[in-house]
Design a protein that fits this description.
Elements: H1 2-8, H2 10-28, H3 34-52, H4 60-70
Length: 75
């Protein structure tokens, strides 16, 4: 089961593990907000899922296109 999980969902496993790791670091240093912990794990899962699909997780061109179209009226 673990080999199959590692073979087919490696990015998600690494992302969730990194999210749990950084979430525990956040919690152990005196913060108790579990919503932040869940958010960190979710971000790790999101990035890992994008890595599994071989997609980019930051669409810089789309953001740049949106910003240049939005502020074009001031030129």
């Amino acid at each position: 089961m673990w080999n199959e999980l590692w073979e087919f969902h490696r990015g998600k496993v690494i992302g969730v593990a990194a999210g749990i790791f950084f979430g525990f670091i956040y919690l152990f240093f005196g913060f108790w907000d579990m919503l932040i912990f869940a958010f960190i794990v979710f971000v790790g899962f999101y990035v890992g899922n994008k890595l599994d699909r071989k997609e980019r997780f930051v669409m810089l061109e789309d953001i740049w296109r949106y910003l240049t179209q939005k502020w074009r009226m001031f030129r």
